[in-house]
Amino acid sequence: MEYVYAALLLHSAGQPVSEDGIKKIVEAAGAAPDEIRIKALVSALEGVDITKVLAAATAMPVAAAPAAAAAPAAKAEAAGAKEENKEEAEESGMEGLGALFG
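Above: the chain's sequence. Below: its structure in token form.
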């Protein structure tokens, strides 16, 4: 994860995302850099427009936010309905016991 953060830091600073840049950032953070992971990340990011990817990633949660906000409300309504059903079942059960003991 620190390698991705380093790449994002380089990108936001306007620097090229390179193996040396990522390695320096990871070392500056006090971690031991893994050359294989750094090479894999840099090769995976070749030809990728990071700005477009970030824009698309930040746009998605905003569109999903209303649906996500509605989900807890629906769960609360369902829980309320279950509570009402449980109370009704308990009341009907008590009426039956009352009829037994008169």
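The chain has four helices and no strands.
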